[in-house]
């Protein structure tokens, strides 16, 4: 209260003053004030200058200034102390005047302390790392004050530029304008990844806590391989959020061109693209996705039979791989047709057919033999119908090439006669009948008999008792010059004595 206000409280206060002091006060106010005050107030308190305002801070009859009087004006500081925030909340029992001296003139600073010895940890924010060497005013700037009450109070008194109060403790409170992440992590504290030692490293970041965990070879990939720098009118930054990772092809090109389906993990793992768990892969892999469905015998053979050079079970299978793929774990074979892998036992004999000799027209994948080309198809689709004993002859009996062996079969013949199959080396008559057609005597029913042979057309027609004589009685076996035993049919004598000379003498 004003000492000379005339109020009752004021009168009671004046009654307690010494007479000499009252006489001084009753005189010239300016002179009296100079006698009482130890000096001019600081510029920040200049509005409290004058003897009528002493009791704004001082209490009559008591030395110094009560903290309550200070905090009655410095309300933002009082609120922070009560909330136990900041440095002042740690100074329990220490009066304000012990640090903030006044009456030292308008140019004197109310805030004076040794910044080199100041323990910043008492403010609730420990300076470490790069912060430990930063100048005070590099952080204590008006733009960084986040406490709205402090901003309002200091602005009202023109002291916003000189206060140390009201700074925020979050990284973005000071570094908002130099956010290198371009706002990608606004909801997260910088300290969750970074430390004050260095900004470019993020020792606190754990990719396992991200939506995409790094496993296998991904753990050794440089960050910038996946997190690329983006540029815009407002600058450039590294993209960390909003990346697509739903499939391997989000980052990697598909070397199979989509032929193996969208799920790379059905065959591959992150331990390495070329490293496959063969057992798991071969159990899970759907070969139909390659365009070559495994059926029949193909479904039961080992993968290596077709996908590893030199592992074919025999010489009838020859594998060739697409150019540049032979070093892969499962190189794709060149497999446009059966003959891409399998030896053509027919040696192109059917290439001129309408289907270009497709193996599947006669053979199935369950087994190469028996062929689906049966007797009925032989009758329908060839110019030589099988009749008589020929229907019981194995295919190789006619189609085997005697010069090359069983693996080389002949299916196309320029002429189809008995001699086509039964060559002179197989001629039981040993050339006695020259070029005479076999069918002139024999039929397909049996070779042992000759139902078409008519002895009446020979030089010796059978008459009388001769008609009942067995053939072998006249046509006996004899040894030919090559050592073989052959029935003699021609030439044979037709005179009686040629057969009966010896019998007659007896």
What is the structure about, briefly put?
The protein has 506 residues and is mostly helical. The protein contains 16 helices and six strands.
Description of the structure:
- This protein is mainly alpha-helical.
- The chain has helices at residues 8-15, 19-26, 29-36, 67-73, 75-82, 136-139, 148-156, 171-175, 223-226, 278-284, 303-307, 375-381, 395-399, 418-421, 471-474, 496-505, and strands spanning 229-232, 235-238, 400-401, 405-409, 477-479, 485-487.
- Among the domains are: 37-169, no CATH class; 175-243, no CATH class; 428-434 and 441-506, no CATH class.
- The chain is built from 16 helices and 6 strands.
- The strands form 3 sheets. Strands 1-2 form a two-stranded antiparallel ribbon. A two-stranded antiparallel ribbon has the order 3-4. A two-stranded antiparallel ribbon has the order 5-6.
- Strand 1 and strand 2 form a beta hairpin.
- It is rod-shaped and about 190 Å long.
- Mean pLDDT is 84; it is low at 1-31.
Strand residue content: under 5%
Per DSSP, the total helix count is 16
Q: How far apart, in Å, are the first and last alpha carbons? A: 186 Å
Q: How many distinct beta strands? A: 6
| Average residue pLDDT | 84
Biggest β-sheet, characterized?
2 strands, antiparallel
């Amino acid at each position: 209260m004003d000492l000379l206000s005339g109020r009752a409280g004021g009168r009671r206060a004046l009654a307690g003053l010494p007479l000499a002091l009252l006489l001084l006060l009753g005189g010239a106010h300016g002179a009296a004030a100079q006698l009482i005050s130890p000096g001019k107030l600081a510029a920040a308190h200049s509005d409290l200058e004058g003897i009528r305002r002493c009791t704004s801070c001082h209490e009559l009859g008591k030395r110094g200034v009560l903290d309550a009087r200070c905090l009655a004006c410095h309300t933002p500081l009082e609120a922070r102390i009560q909330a136990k925030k900041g440095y002042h909340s740690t100074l329990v029992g220490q009066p304000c005047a012990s640090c903030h001296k006044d009456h030292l003139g308008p140019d004197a600073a109310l805030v004076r302390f040794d910044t080199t010895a100041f323990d910043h940890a008492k403010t609730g924010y420990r300076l470490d790392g790069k912060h430990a060497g930063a100048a005070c005013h590099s952080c204590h700037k008006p733009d960084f004050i986040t406490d709205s009450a402090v901003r309002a109070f200091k602005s009202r008194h023109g002291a916003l530029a000189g206060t140390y109060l009201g700074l925020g403790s979050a990284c973005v409170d000071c570094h908002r304008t130099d956010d290198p992440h371009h706002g990608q992590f606004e909801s997260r504290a910088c300290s969750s990844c970074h430390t004050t030692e260095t900004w470019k490293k993020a020792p606190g970041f754990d990719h396992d806590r991200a939506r995409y965990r790094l496993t296998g070879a991904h753990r050794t990939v440089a960050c910038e391989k996946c997190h690329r720098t983006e540029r815009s009118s407002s600058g450039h930054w590294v993209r960390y959020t909003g990346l697509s990772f739903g499939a391997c092809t989000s980052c990697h090109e598909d070397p199979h061109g989509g032929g193996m389906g969208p799920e790379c993990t059905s065959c591959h793992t992150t331990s390495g693209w070329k490293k496959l768990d063969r057992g798991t892969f071969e159990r899970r892999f759907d070969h139909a996705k390659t365009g070559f469905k495994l059926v029949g015998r193909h479904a039961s053979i080992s993968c290596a039979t077709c996908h590893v050079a030199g592992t074919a079970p025999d010489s009838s299978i020859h594998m060739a791989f697409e150019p540049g793929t032979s070093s892969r774990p499962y190189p794709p074979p060149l497999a446009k047709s059966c003959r891409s892998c399998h030896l053509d036992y027919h040696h192109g004999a059917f290439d001129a057919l309408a289907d270009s000799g497709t193996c599947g027209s006669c053979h199935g994948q369950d087994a190469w033999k028996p062929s689906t080309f049966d007797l009925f198809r032989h009758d329908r689709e060839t110019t030589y119908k099988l009749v008589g004993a020929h229907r019981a002859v194995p295919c190789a009996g006619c189609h085997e090439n005697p010069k090359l062996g069983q693996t080389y079969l002949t299916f196309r013949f320029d002429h189809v006669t008995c001699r086509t199959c039964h060559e002179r080396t197989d001629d039981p008559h040993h050339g006695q009948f020259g070029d005479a057609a076999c069918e002139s005597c024999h039929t397909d029913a049996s070779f042992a008999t000759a139902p078409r042979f008519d002895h009446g057309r020979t030089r010796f027609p059978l008459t009388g008792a001769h008609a009942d004589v067995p053939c072998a009685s006249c046509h006996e076996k004899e040894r030919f010059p090559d050592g073989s035993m052959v029935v003699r049919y021609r030439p044979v004598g037709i005179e009686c004595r040629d057969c009966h000379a010896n019998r007659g003498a007896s």
